[in-house]
Structures are given as C-alpha cells and as structure tokens.
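As a warm-up, study this chain.
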Amino acid sequence: MNSDRSSLFSSIGLLIIRLGVGGYMLTHGMQKLDMLREGQLEMMGDPIGLGPWLSLVLVTFAEFACSILVMIGLGTRLFAFPVVFSMGVAAFVAHANDPWDMTSAAMAFFAGESKSWASKEPALIFFFVFLGLMFTGAGRLSLDHYVCPWLKAKLKRNDTPPPDMFNA
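Now compare it with the structure written out below.
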C-alpha cells in the first residue's frame, strides 16, 4: 500500500513539473511560432549552421510542439530530447558569451557593460528539468501510462514478426 501511495505522490510531482515547466517552455515556443509565421528569421540567427529558417523551425518544434506533448505526457522521454538539445544549443552556443546566472547579467547590464541581461541560466534550468524527465518519464498521470501498455499489447497480438533489417 505504501508503494502505491509513494508512486501516486511521485506521479503527482511529475505532473506538476510537466505542467509547470512545460507551460513556461510553451510560452517561449509561442514566441518562436509567431516569429516563424511573421518571417522574422533575423531574430533567430543560425547557431549551429543549419540556416536561420531550419533553425527556427526546429526550435519551434522543440519549444512549442514538444512542450505540449510533454505536458500531456505523450512520448515524454522521446519528446523531452529535442527540448534538451535546443536548450543545450541556447546555453552553450547562442549564449556562449553571456554570464552563467541572471544576477551577474543584470549587474553587467545596469553597469553599462552589456546591452542586455541575457544569461545561460534560463536555458540551463529548462535543460536540466527536461533531461530529468527523459530519465523519469511522465509517471502514472500521463497518456504514456495508458497508451504504452495498449500499444505493447497490440504489438504482441500481431503474429507477424518485425522484418529483420540486417539479414534481408
């Protein structure tokens, strides 16, 4: 009985994390979606050499679509990865020359040493939370909990074995 209660509390905690952090990531994704719709490619840049349009499409997918999927708990481990990758690029490429924390960035901005108070901190917070969700999964209060067993059962009922790619 205690393990059921512990599992439920863990699942409630994961739900709160998914909804809270996913919701905040979604606000960033909505900004990127607006940039994409309005053709504001110059605001995105080209952090890893894919071109500004493809970079913006991929970041929009990660921050908008993947955050929604993580929030509802569908393919959580899979769809947390694009967010982790995107935030890694944001922290270590796009904000490579920015301070690690927001306090230092704000102090530099108000001292006139910087044109903005951008820092690595927001991207790193998202990075670590979504990385954690890649390892924990969504918990019991998610679509993963209900869809995955159904999908596994459906695949087991299929009498045809999957094709052998290496001995074709």
